[in-house]
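User: Run a structure prediction on this.
Assistant: Running it now.
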Amino acid sequence: MATSIAKLVEYTNIRWNPDWCKRCLICVEACPRQALVLKDDAIIEVGHCDRTGLCQRLCPDLAIEVMEPRSKEGRR
């Protein structure tokens, strides 16, 4: 049995898994900064993300993750 590796899309502040996402728009509606949009069947980060984590906490599919900011040395 082959296991599939999750295909993640990494933006500046979030990591999104299109295979797990059902495009319910909960993350888009929950964002207080309106930093997420659905465009061309993909959740896109359009900026102004302040990493509140509401999108991640409310996603019923665990398809979105708020990433930690990189340190000045380039490590997370």
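Strands lie at 9-10, 14-16, 36-39, 42-45, 64-66.
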